């Protein structure tokens, strides 16, 4: 067995967004590097024959960012986005299987955001922002570029590409609303179109409306408002006519509890089809009949069919199923999934299971020794059933404890640890297990996989019961002789970073902590983060809620900074708009004021996720060295150059990056975006 290195973690390639042909015979997926070395992420499209008779092959030979593979209704043409001609500006391309030729289909100057091949073989729906006008060009030349918030905001609009003429038309529908998503009715009827009042992430998800658009006549119909953060539009036929489904947050809580909503188009009756379930829906897959629903189910995943009157469970899978796709007949699905010791690959099979692996994108990990991973089930102090994972040091058994224990809290908080391979660019269990640590991965209340009430219980109460849930797991491992009570560490990214900062303000039990892109002041985050209203729901109030003290002050780690004695490593991206850099600056200044041992590292050009290869390498090595320094001082010496407090590794020009524009989708789950 070979040891795990930081290079092995970040230098791999991972599959993304598989897409099945309607006839189920072929599958396309995106192959993307785990880290980026230049200004652009070079990705590839690969084709897989689902019967395994022909070896997988690359679809194109371009050096480009290729994404969003979608098939024509006849399964003969693959449409996708690529910036091969102008890096950073994706255009629609078409690959004809019969002769293997690839054609560039658009030349939209600002690029194409999304596309949807329609049942009509001559039409493709596009999402794209408006091209610059002559006045825009003149203002750019004159540097007359003052930004007036709310004026001239770029919004995605629905456009139609006619493949016969190459012309792109923009129907004058939906007013000035920002188009987010579209889905055609399976019989070739109208498009369901989801729009926001603004592209701003803070208000857009709360202003969603559904529309119908007929691509043949150009007629549009407004179906009214949708629940907050609606997505994953799906059609299906019912006895009372067509139904439209979508995923959205269960009202009235803004931050958690995703449900499947079912809108009867003719009567406009809306129902929550997953109310009361102990699972959480993560994806809807359209078929020609009843749609499929993927559920986070504790540490694992359930696939079900949304029948007219009930949900029918079809199969149960270990870990996660991400990016599911299905044939129109609903007889075949493909998704990204893995095992405890294998990273995700494309798997395919019937929705009733089992699924068969058809890719092996990280063979370099096959000979790497990993720590034993096992599920945990225990009860909180108030009797609530909880779960999580324990990863033991590589080559060790539980009976050989106690070990130094690092608890890594997941992001979200509406996320979860699933029973899959725990190896990522941010501090992860297998990375620490390779260095001799036991790692606890708890799923405290507020997370996904146990129903709406479990998730919504932390609204306005972050850091309260979820913190005691985590402590219960730690105390369990101490009582069982697995964890050394004198060598405890805690870490997390995003909401996990918040919990790490919260922990060291509540107790001195931890010898070391890592706060990655963490929240320290909920009022400031509601005021400056790109998801302000969601953060206000978590924190319980905003700074403009009167003189104060405010409810969010009582759950903000900064309020307890004077209590912190634990050495803290703070890591943050300079261009993070989800949790702006100011949060890390605030904690750094407080720790400096109270003379607390700490290190503050800023990664230039990085957002909420760290993407550049050298930064990922630094983060992995630095976090492990930090725990080695404080949890195993007899075995290590402090890395040279580590001082207390450390100066930021960025230039002063990077520090105001947290004041940049509010852009991007609300996204809180998965390893790519651990918030």
Automatic annotation (TrEMBL):
GO aspect biological process, one term: proteolysis
Q: Which InterPro entries match?
A: 6-blade_b-propeller_TolB-like, AB_hydrolase_fold, Peptidase_S9_cat, WD40
Q: Where is the Peptidase S9 prolyl oligopeptidase catalytic domain?
A: 429-632
Q: Name one GO molecular function term.
A: serine-type endopeptidase activity
Region named Disordered: 634-675
Gene3D superfamilies named among the record's database cross-references: alpha/beta hydrolase (3.40.50.1820), TolB, C-terminal domain (2.120.10.30)
Residue ranges annotated as coiled coil are none
Keyword Protease applies? yes
TM helices/strands, residue ranges: none
Alphabetized, the UniProt keywords read: Aminopeptidase, Hydrolase, Protease, Serine protease
Instruction: Show the Pfam families listed in the entry.
Output: PD40, Peptidase_S9
**Polar residues bias located where?**
637-652
Q: What is this protein called?
A: Dipeptidyl aminopeptidase
Organism from which the protein derives: Micromonospora inaquosa
């Amino acid at each position: 067995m070979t040891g795990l290195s930081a290079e092995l973690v970040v230098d791999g390639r991972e599959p993304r967004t598989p897409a099945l042909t309607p006839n189920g015979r072929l599958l396309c997926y995106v192959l993307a590097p785990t880290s980026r070395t230049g200004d652009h992420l070079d990705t590839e499209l690969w084709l897989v024959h689902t019967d395994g008779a022909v070896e997988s092959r690359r679809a194109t030979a371009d050096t480009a960012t290729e994404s969003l593979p979608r098939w024509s209704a006849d399964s003969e043409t693959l449409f996708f986005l690529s910036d091969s001609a102008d890096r950073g500006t994706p255009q629609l391309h078409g690959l004809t299987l019969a002769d293997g030729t690839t054609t560039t289909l658009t030349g939209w100057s600002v690029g194409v955001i999304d596309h949807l091949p329609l049942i009509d073989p001559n039409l493709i729906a596009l999402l794209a922002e408006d091209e610059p006008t002559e006045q825009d060009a003149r203002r750019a030349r004159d540097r007359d570029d003052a930004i007036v918030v709310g004026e001239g905001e770029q919004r995605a609009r629905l456009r139609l590409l006619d493949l016969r003429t190459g012309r792109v038309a923009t129907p004058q529908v939906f007013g000035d609303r920002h188009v987010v998503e579209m889905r055609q009715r399976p019989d070739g009827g109208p498009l369901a179109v989801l729009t926001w009042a603004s592209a701003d992430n803070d208000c857009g998800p709360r202003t969603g409306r559904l529309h119908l658009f007929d691509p043949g006549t150009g007629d549009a119909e407004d179906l009214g408002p949708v629940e907050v953060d609606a997505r994953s539009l799906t059609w299906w036929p019912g006895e009372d006519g067509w139904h439209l489904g979508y995923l959205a947050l269960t009202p009235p809580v803004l931050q958690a509890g995703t449900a499947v909503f079912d809108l009867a188009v003719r009567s406009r009756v809306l129902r929550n089809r997953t109310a009361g379930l102990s699972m959480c829906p993560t994806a809807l897959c359209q078929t020609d009949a009843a749609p499929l629903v993927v559920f986070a189910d504790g540490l694992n995943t359930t696939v079900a069919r949304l029948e007219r009157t009930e949900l029918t469970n079809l199969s149960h899978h270990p870990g996660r199923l991400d990016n599911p796709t299905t044939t129109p007949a609903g007889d075949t699905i493909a998704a990204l999934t893995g095992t405890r010791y294998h990273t995700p690959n494309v798997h395919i099979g019937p929705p009733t299971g089992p699924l068969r692996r058809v890719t092996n994108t990280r063979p370099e990990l096959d000979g790497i020794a990993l720590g034993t991973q096992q599920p945990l089930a225990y009860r909180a102090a108030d009797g609530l059933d909880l779960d999580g994972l324990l990863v033991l040091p590589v080559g060790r058994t539980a009976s050989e404890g106690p070990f130094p224990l690092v608890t890594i809290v997941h992001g979200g908080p509406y996320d979860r640890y699933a029973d899959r391979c725990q190896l990522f660019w941010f501090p992860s269990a297998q990375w620490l297990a390779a260095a001799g640590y036991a790692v606890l991965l708890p799923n405290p209340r507020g997370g996904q996989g146990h129903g709406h009430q479990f998730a919504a219980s932390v609204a306005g109460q972050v850091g309260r019961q979820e913190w005691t849930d985590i402590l219960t797991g730690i105390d369990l491992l101490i009582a069982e002789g697995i964890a050394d009570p004198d060598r405890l560490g805690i870490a997390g990214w995003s909401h996990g970073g918040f919990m790490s900062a919260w922990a060291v303000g509540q107790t001195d039990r931890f010898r070391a902590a890592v706060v990655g892109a963490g929240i320290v002041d909920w009022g400031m985050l509601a005021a400056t983060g790109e998801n302000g209203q969601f953060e206000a729901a978590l924190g319980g109030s905003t700074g403009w809620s009167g003189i104060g003290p405010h409810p969010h002050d009582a759950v903000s780690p900064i309020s307890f900074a004077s209590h912190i004695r634990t050495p803290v490593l703070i890591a943050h991206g300079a261009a993070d708009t989800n949790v702006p850099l100011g949060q890390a600056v605030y904690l750094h200044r407080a720790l400096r004021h109270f003379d607390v041992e700490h290190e503050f590292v800023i990664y230039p050009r990085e957002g909420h996720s760290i993407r550049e290869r050298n930064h990922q390498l630094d983060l992995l090595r630095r976090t492990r060295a930090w725990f080695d320094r404080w949890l195993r001082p007899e075995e290590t010496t402090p890395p040279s150059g580590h001082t207390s407090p450390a100066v930021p590794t960025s230039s002063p020009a990077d520090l105001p990056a947290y004041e940049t524009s509010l852009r991007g989708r609300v996204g809180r789950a998965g390893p790519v975006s651990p918030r």
